[in-house]
Automatic annotation (TrEMBL):
<dbReference type="InterPro" id="IPR008906">
    <property type="entry name" value="HATC_C_dom"/>
</dbReference>
<dbReference type="Pfam" id="PF05699">
    <property type="entry name" value="Dimer_Tnp_hAT"/>
</dbReference>
<dbReference type="InterPro" id="IPR012337">
    <property type="entry name" value="RNaseH-like_sf"/>
</dbReference>
<protein>
    <recommendedName>
        <fullName>HAT C-terminal dimerisation domain-containing protein</fullName>
    </recommendedName>
</protein>
<dbReference type="InterPro" id="IPR052035">
    <property type="entry name" value="ZnF_BED_domain_contain"/>
</dbReference>
<keyword id="KW-0862">Zinc</keyword>
<keyword id="KW-0539">Nucleus</keyword>
<keyword id="KW-0863">Zinc-finger</keyword>
<dbReference type="GO" id="GO:0008270">
    <property type="term" value="F:zinc ion binding"/>
</dbReference>
<feature type="domain" description="HAT C-terminal dimerisation">
    <location>
        <begin position="180"/>
        <end position="243"/>
    </location>
</feature>
<dbReference type="GO" id="GO:0005634">
    <property type="term" value="C:nucleus"/>
</dbReference>
<keyword id="KW-0479">Metal-binding</keyword>
Length: 247
């Protein structure tokens, strides 16, 4: 049960990115149980029950990676939102490595899943991308006339186009992602991968579970004791904020 404990700690953290670990954790646990089946002798029913429960609870993830089929009744499977796939792929600690190691399908299907995840990220990157206005050389010369008496003596430096398409950024990201800390990675590469950065900050700030939120309310209950009944709302808010954001 150690892998289950590790997955619980990863998905219930407070000051770390948690949503990116959902898909790798679920698929890794399923792979762990799959390997245990031929090894256990007296607990085979427990292993099977755990695997059935895992696939039922996180059915949407298994459907999205083509390890399960859609339900016949037309209901939406739990955890079927594509945000879980995008978050896992945009965390350099996982990238797309979880597809190779823990998606138990054929190589052709793995390639389809990999392409599907890329398309999800690129689609959102294109939607969030805003075109920047371009200033031609004539306008630059006109605007530069008022920069000083000898402004014409200086060499005109053409602004280098550092922007790349979302597809090139994604390719570069997958090349450099190698287990780095997700927060440090995006802080250092926010200008190198601007389109992907916008997608990352949207999907990675989603908490994987409600445990951190419940802890906030617990801290509020501890601070607002009966002998502090006349504490103002503003003071309570500030105390809870300081308590939950202390280093």
């Amino acid at each position: 049960m150690n892998p289950f404990g590790e997955a619980t700690d990863l998905t219930q953290g407070e000051k770390i990115v948690t949503i990116s670990s959902v898909v790798p954790s679920v698929l890794s646990l399923n792979h762990h149980l799959e390997k245990l089946k031929p090894q256990v002798r007296f607990l085979s029913s427990l292993v099977r029950s755990l695997q059935v429960s895992l696939k039922k609870r996180f059915g949407g993830i298994f459907i999205n990676v083509k390890m399960a089929t859609l339900t016949q009744d037309g209901t939406t499977a739990p955890f079927s939102d594509p945000v879980y796939l995008k978050a896992a792929a945009l965390d350099p600690a996982f990238s797309l490595m979880w597809i190779d190691h823990h998606v138990l399908v054929s190589l052709e299907v793995k390639a389809e899943v990999r392409q599907h995840v890329k398309e999800l990220i690129l689609r959102e990157a294109v939607e969030t991308e805003q075109p920047t206005p371009c200033v031609d050389e004539e306008e630059q010369e006109i605007l530069g006339q008022g920069e000083g008496l000898f402004a014409a003596y200086h060499k005109k430096k053409k602004k280098k186009d550092v922007g790349t398409t979302p597809a090139l950024q994604l390719s570069h990201y997958l090349h450099i992602a190698d287990g780095q800390n997700v927060l440090l990675f995006w802080a250092m590469n926010m200008k190198v991968l601007p389109s992907l950065f916008k997608v990352a900050i949207r999907v990675l700030d989603v908490p994987a579970s409600r445990a951190p939120v419940e802890r906030v309310f617990s801290h509020g209950g501890i601070i607002l004791r009966p002998h502090r009944a006349q504490m103002s709302d503003r003071l309570l808010t500030n105390l809870v904020f300081c308590k939950c954001n202390a280093l």
